Amino acid sequence: MSGTTTAAAPHGRRGSGAGAGANRWVVLVVLCVSLLLVAVDATVLHVAVPAVTEDLKPGAMELLWIVDIYPLVCASLLILFGTLGDRVGRRRVLLLGYALFGVASAIAALADNAQVLIAARALLGVGGAMIMPATLSILRQVFPDRRERAVAIGLWSAVAAVGAAVGPLLGGFLLEHFWWGSVFLINIPLMLVSLPIGRWLLPESTGDRDGPWDVVGALMAATGLFGLVLGVKRLGGGEDPLGLTTLLSLFLGGALLIGFVRRQRRRTHPLVDLSMFMRPAFSTSVGCIVLAMLALVGLELIAAQYLQLVLGLSPLETGLRLLPLTVAAMAAGLAGSKMLSGLGPRTMVCAGFCLTAFAVLLLTGMGGHANDALLLSGFVLLGFGLETTLFGAYESMLSEAPQTQAGGAAAIGETSYQLGAGIGIALLGSVMNAAYAPGLSSVQGVSAADSAAAGHSLGEAYEVAARVGGGAGAALRSAARDSFVHGLHVTLLVSAGLLLLGAVAALRLPRRMECGASVPAGRAEVPAPRDPARVGAGSSVDV
């Protein structure tokens, strides 16, 4: 059975097709607002960590979980809820995600201890995992024409870039005027508005509901991804790679995911149609997403440290220096559909990788003193190239996937994004540490113990230098700055190599954007109207 869409038209016009036709751009606005909330919430807490620490006084491990539990849970559950949306209705899962996100935000805002805040952040991750794949899969259904869909994905991706940048700025503004819980409280009125508007405007759609939904497979995927992402995050956080928790997380996560793949191959009605990966355009697009994030997310964190610790900028000044990157990413998202139709997926993604690699190599000119022109040009090229790459990869992946698997395909894309980001932090962080630490091993007047402590990070090196004082402390501080810049250059070169590898991989993408026959808007995928309350009726669940 093919995927179906029920138009959620305004009351009194149900069945008119408004939900998928005349109002499809309004539907896009609703979906973009949904994505904006999730993207903002992923970063808004970062600036509130000091206030949370002062108020709740969490331990070191509790503080780590407060920050990490949201992306960890969200990444783990994307496949589960993406495929569940294909089964019971994507709008239904999205609206449940809205409700859960609002409830979890209220609990987080009013949390009076670290444990409650961790639990609330975990619930926010569950809500985010419901919302993210649903927005992309509904977009796939509402825009059957590929040219229009490319424009919609461009706007969708531009909103994601805005959300990532707005989070810290919004959090800083709220903290200046209110208490830290306000960074969560702002979600509640937005969700109260989004629920009825989403129920009124968004179309309901499902995928192929033949056969039962594989509950065991969904739980295997969720638990396996949780273990794998946890292990990768521990590696990226500087934990011992041979530590029991890290090794156990990676081993169990990998084993469960291997078991999940084998289970899906045996089933008549798999949770995720793995045959999608046999299509070169789909598998290559997923690989390009992983490589792009692997090369750049860890680099972004290191760049923020460079701006603050080497150049001595404040957090607000750092955010403003990185703002051109976000603006350029927005511009690439808005221009993406025209570039895709003119260049084709292969040239667009390959050129995006090459432009990003050039920007990364340009940034190797960064030294111990500020070079504003270099930073501005490097960050603009970096943002434009990265968004060009991700736009082309996401659009090709989503267009290659069958409509019946739109939720699963969207979940695979988002999971690839999260895994690439996690692995990138671990990999580039390890490269940075390996290049940074040796430069501090023989600073005159500094003991071996202090040199070892300074080798952990530049921030810790500054603390050790202040404690040592005198000429030895000044020498250690100078050596740490020089070593960090050297490590940054090595990391940039490794990142550029990964990006060029992505450019080679992109050569497997189609040369041209195949659009096929255009379907008149408003009539596409809108069969005889059905009662939305009955969507999912008759679906069975396999345990």
Give the termini separation: 22 Å
Major sheet: arrangement of strands:
1-2
pLDDT averaged residue by residue: 76
Helix and strand element order: EHHHHHHHHEEHHHHHHHHHHE
Regions with pLDDT < 50 over 5+ consecutive residues?
A: 1-22, 517-543
Q: What is the highest CATH level, the class of the largest domain?
A: Mainly Alpha
Structural classification? mainly alpha
Describe the structure.
The chain has 3 domains: 25-209, Up-down Bundle (Growth Hormone, Chain: A); 214-270; 273-513, Growth Hormone, Chain: A, CATH 1.20.1250.20. The two termini are 22 Å apart. Strands 1-2 form a two-stranded antiparallel ribbon. Strands 3-4 form a two-stranded parallel sheet. With 543 residues, it is mainly alpha-helical. The longest helix has 36 residues, at 470-505. It is built from 18 helices and 4 strands. 73% of the residues lie in helices and 2% in strands. Helix 15 runs antiparallel to helix 18. It is globular, with a radius of gyration of 24 Å.
Topology, element by element:
Elements: E1 4-6, H1 24-43, H2 49-56, H3 60-88, H4 90-109, H5 114-142, H6 146-177, H7 182-185, H8 187-201, E2 204-206, E3 213-214, H9 215-236, H10 244-266, H11 280-310, H12 315-343, H13 345-362, H14 372-400, H15 406-436, H16 448-454, H17 458-468, H18 470-505, E4 541-542
Parallel strand pairs: 3-4
Antiparallel strand pairs: 1-2
Helix pairs in contact: 1-5, 1-6, 1-8, 3-4, 3-5, 3-9, 3-15, 4-5, 4-8, 5-6, 5-15, 6-12, 6-14, 9-10, 9-15, 11-14, 11-15, 11-18, 12-13, 12-14, 13-14, 13-18, 15-18, 16-17, 17-18
Short description:
The chain is mostly helical. It contains 18 helices and four strands.
